[in-house]
Amino acid sequence: MFAKPVPGRTTAAAEGDVVVLLIGMRINHFRGVHHWFPVLLAMPRMLRELSRDKSRGLLGYTLLTGSPRTYYVVQYWESKEKLYAYASAPDMFHRTAWARINRTERKSRQHVGLWHETYIVPEGSYESIYADMPPYGLSAATGVLPVGGRGRSAAERLAHRSGAKPARPAR
């Protein structure tokens, strides 16, 4: 249940482009529990479904809260194609949940807000560092490397390219 910290400084083992989906909800009116509670319960069900089938492309996720009204998930995906495929798959719960939300949208919109943002981050446009942390965020999704494997500075880590040999440190 409690992840053990990895001693020292580490970085995420991500290779290639990174697909990040931020998705969440905001409770606009607490009294409309029957409108927002089913929405709140839908995301854990989708995450369980995706976690059971790694071939769907979800690499990892972090559940977060922004306030007592706002709940969201940071998700890391293998590719935008796998994200799109899950979102439109007729045999997956997302399709059922989205159809239900669309049927009740006029009534529930005033009670619950929904949002998502998708980012396709090209290789060389992301970097990470974790100090005495258990795997978290991108490193929990893609694995952990000693920070020296990607460079000691943010600039060196941003310059990393898959399959490229690390640059020799300056003397």
Query: Beta fraction of the residues?
Result: 25-35%
- Total beta strand runs: 7
The span between the termini is 44 Å
Number of helices: 6
Q: What percent of residues adopt helix (DSSP H or I)?
A: 25-40%
Let me know the largest β-sheet: 4 strands, antiparallel
Query: Radius of gyration, rounded?
Result: 19 Å
SS-based structural class?
A: alpha+beta
Describe the global form.
elongated
- Side by side, the strands of the main sheet go 3-4-2-5
**Element order: H for helix, E for strand:** EEHEEHHHEEHEH
Look at the structure and give the mean pLDDT: 90
| Unreliable residue stretches | none
What layout of secondary structure does this protein have?
Layout: E1 6-12, E2 18-27, H1 33-52, E3 58-65, E4 70-77, H2 80-88, H3 93-103, H4 105-108, E5 112-121, E6 130-133, H5 138-142, E7 144-146, H6 154-159
Antiparallel strand pairs: 1-6, 1-7, 2-4, 2-5, 3-4
